[in-house]
Amino acid sequence: MIARSTSSLVLKVSRIAFAVCALTIVAAAFVKPVLAFELFGISLFGREDDSDEGIEGERIGVPVPYDVSVSVLGEDAAEGLDGEAVRLASSLWRERDEPASGDAGLLAGARADYRSLLGALYAQGFYGASISIGVNGREASDVSPGADLSSPVEVAIEVTPGPLYRFGRLEIVGDASVTAQRLTEDASIFEDFASGQPARSTVILAAERAAVSAWRAQGFALASAGDRNVVADHSTRTLDVTLLIVPDRQAHYGPLAVEGIDRMDPQFVAYMADLPTGEIYDPREVAEATERLAALEVFRSVRIENAGALSADGSLPQSILVQERPLRRVGAGATFSSVDGAGLEAFWLHRNLFGRAERLRVEGTVSGIDSVDPDDFTYRFGAALTRPGFLTPDTKLIAALNAAREVLESYTRVGVDGAVGVDHPFSRELTGRFAVQGRYAEFDDDVFAERDFASAGFEARLTYDTRDLPTAATSGLFLEAAATPYYEFINDNLGIALTGEARAYQSLTENDRLILAARAKIGTALGPSIAETAPDRLFLAGGGSSVRGYAFRNIGVLQPNGEITGGRFLLEGSVEARARFTDTIGGVIFADAGYVDADSVPNFEDDLRVGVGTGLRYLTPLGPIRFDVAVPLDPGDGDDDVAFYIGIGEAF
User: Fold this and answer.
1) Distance CA 287, CA 273 (A)
2) HSE on the CB side for 473, CA within 13 Å?
3) Which of 381, 408, 396 shows the shortest CA–CA distance to 538?
4) 13 CB contacts (<8 Å, ≥6 apart)?
5) What are the DSSP E strand ranges found in 471-556?
6) Which candidate, 418, 367, 425, 421, places its Cα nearest to that of 394?
7) What is the biggest distance separating any 2 CA atoms in the chain, rounded to whole angstroms?
8) Could you tell me the mean pLDDT of each successive run of 10 residues in the chain, 652 residues long?
9) Residue from 583, 641, 586, 638 nearest 611 by CA
10) What is the pLDDT of residues 541-556, one digit of tens each?
11) CA–CA separation, 109 vs 159, rounded Å?
C-alpha cells in the first residue's frame, strides 16, 4: 500500500495550481524578454512579426469624382466569354466608388486599363478584340496627360471581344512530359494545352511552368523557360505556340548554408532540413524541408534558396534563410457553460530552450467555477517538453508531467501522471504516437468511498487527418484509434482501453457557406470490474465537447444508491449543420447523443441520451468563438432544462 504521506503531498501540489495559474499571468509583465501576450488566442500587446509596417503614400492631386460604365458587346453570344471577369480587369471600374487621384491619375488609370482589359481577353482566348475608353467623349489615348477635365468625369468603356481563338500547332522544345505523370496537378494542364482547345493565355503560361517543373522533378534544379513564340492566325482564328525549355544539367545537393541564425544551432537546422549532400535534387524534398523547419515554430520566416549556378561537379549550393521569433510567450483564455461553470487557463511557453527548438510549455487551468467555494473547483497544473528531430528529422520526443485535483459530479480525483513518448508522421495524413505512462491518484465518491490506484502502461495511437483546416474544417476526414494497456499495482490487475473516433466534414455549397459535420466515438475498457478500475479509466459522457445539454461527464452508469459512475463502454455521436451568414457571423444547429454501459460489450438496456440545440459563431482568423444553447431530451439528476456554452473553436 502506498503511504498516505504521498497523498498529502499530491493534494498540496494540486491545490497550488490555481495560484500558479494566476501568477503566470501576473509574472508575464515582469519576465524579460517577453515580446508578446495572448488572450483567447488574440495578441494584445507585442508582436509576433517585427517586420516594418508599410507607409501609405500621399494621394497626388485633388480628388476627382467620375462615373464609369463598361459595355462588353455580345457577351451573351460569345462562346466561353466571362464578361464579369473582363469588367473586373478595369481598375476604373473596380475603384468606381472612390474618386480618382487628380486628372492625371484618372487618365493614367484609363491608359492602364487598355492593357488590363486586353490581358483579360487573352486569358479567355480572344485575340481579335477592340477596346475603346472614352473620357468625356474623347478616346483616353488621345487626351493629353496634362488636360484639365471637367467634373464629374464621364468614362465609357466599350469592349468588342471578337471571336474565340483555338490552339493550332503546339510544340514544346525540350519537353520532359514523361515526368508530368509524376506531377498529377501539372499533367492535367496538358489536356487544355492541346490543338482545338480554347487558346487561353493562362493555359500557355501554365503549360510552360509545368514543362519547367517536369525537368526540375527529375533533378534539373535550374531548368528555365526560354523563348516563347506565339503567332495568331486571324484567318483561321488559331494560335500557334512554340515553347523553349532549357533544362541545364542535372543537380545534386551541395553545401547547405544557414543564415539569419541568432540562438538556434545551425547544424541542427541543417539536420532538420534533411537534404543530404550528393543526392539528386528533388523540389518536393525542398518543399518538405521548408515545411518541417516552419513546423518548429521558432522561425518567423523560412526560405530555402538555390545558388544561381551549378558547381563544376554538378552540385547545387543552397542557403536556408531564417528569421527567429521571440523566445518566450505567455497567454490566457477562458470558457463558460451554464452547467459546467466557468474556466480559466494560462500558459508560459519557451520555444527554444537549449538551441534545438526544444519547446517547454507550462500551463495551469481552473475550471468548474460555478460556486464561491474554491474546494468545488477543478485545478490542473502541468508541463510538457517537446524535442524535435529525435532519431529522425520527422520524429518528436515528448515528455509531460501533470498534477490535478478534479471535482466531478461522480467523483473527486487528486493525482499526478506522467508520460514519455514519440510522435512520428508516416505521411502527410497519417501520424503515430507511442508513449510510456505512469499514474497515481486518490479517488473519493459516494459509491466506493476512498480508493487509491497506481498504474503503469503505454499508449499506441494512430491518427489519419485530411481536414483542410483543423480549427474550422469545411472538408475532409479525421480518424483516430488508440490502445492503452496497463498494469494496476494496488489491485494487481491488467487492463486495456480501446477507443476509436471518426469525424467527417462536407461542404454543401461551392462557397462553403453551409457545412455538414458529423462525429462518432466508441470505446471499451477490458479487464477489471468497475469497482477495481480507476474512475478516470472508465467512460463518462456529457458536456460541451461531448453531449451538449447534459452536465460535464454526468452520463454514466446508474448505481443502486442512485449515484453515477463511469462505465466500461462508450458510444457518442454528433451531427451539426454550420452556416456562414457573413464573413464573420455564422450559426449552427446540432444533435448530440451518448450512451454508457457497465459492461465492456454493451447490452443497450439503458436509454440513449440525446441533446439538441443551436448556436452562433463569431468567425476569427484563429478560429470561431462559439455560443451554444442545448436542451437535454432525457435529463437526469444534475442536468438543467437548458444549458449554454461559450468557448473558442468548434465543438468538434
Assistant:
1) 10
2) 20
3) 408
4) 381, 403, 416
5) 476-488, 493-507, 514-526
6) 425
7) 99
8) 36 38 38 38 40 38 88 85 93 92 91 95 94 94 85 91 94 69 55 91 92 90 93 93 92 94 93 95 94 94 93 94 94 76 90 95 91 86 97 96 91 96 95 97 92 97 95 93 98 97 95 95 96 94 92 89 92 97 95 96 88 95 89 88 88 90
9) 641
10) 998 889 999 988 889 9
11) 16
For residues 392 and 74, give the distance between their C-alpha atoms in angstroms, rounded to a whole number: 62
Cell of 295: 513546423
Angle at 540 between CA 536 and CA 546, to 5 degrees: 120
What is the full DSSP assignment across 166-221?
EEEEEEEET--GGGGGTSHHHHTHHHHSSTTSB--HHHHHHHHHHHHHHHHTTT-T
C-alpha cell at 250: 542535372
Judge whether 411 and 423 are in contact, CB under 8 Å. Answer: no
Which pTM does this prediction carry? 0.73
Report the side by side order of strands in the sheet with 315-324: 252-259, 315-324, 299-306
Q: Assess contact for 544 and 645: CB atoms under 8 A.
A: yes
CA distance 603 to 608: 12
Inter-CA distances, 400 with 418, 483, 588, Å: 5, 19, 36
- Give the phi and the psi of residue 332 in degrees, each rounded to 5: -150, 160
Grid coordinates of 101? 487621384
Contacts of 229 (CB under 8 A, 6+ apart): 240, 241, 242, 243, 244
pLDDT at 643: 92
pLDDT at residue 134, as a whole number: 94
Query: Which of 499, 506, 623, 516 has the alpha carbon at shortest distance from 574?
Result: 516
Cα angle, residue 261 at apex, residues 259 and 266 outer, rounded to 5°? 85
Instruction: For residue 137, give the C-alpha cell.
Output: 467623349
- Contact of 149 with 103, CB cutoff 8 Å: yes
pLDDT (tens digit per residue) in 579-618: 999 989 999 999 999 999 999 999 888 789 999 999 999 9
* pLDDT, tens only, 484-521: 999 999 999 999 999 999 999 999 998 899 999 999 99
pLDDT on residue 188: 66
Q: Which three cell numbers stand for residue 493?
A: 490487475
Q: Residue 199 corresponds to which amino acid?
A: A
Return the bridge partners of 322, or none. 302
476-488 and 493-507: which strand pairing? antiparallel
Which residues on neighbouring strands pair with residue 636, listed in sequence order?
A: none
Rounded to an integer, what distance in angstroms lies between the CA atom of residue 363 and that of residue 341? Answer: 20
- Report yes or no: 622 and 599 within 8 Å, Cβ to Cβ: no
For 315, what's the count of Cα atoms within 13 Å in the CB-facing half-sphere?
12
Map grid coordinates 525537368 to a residue: 215
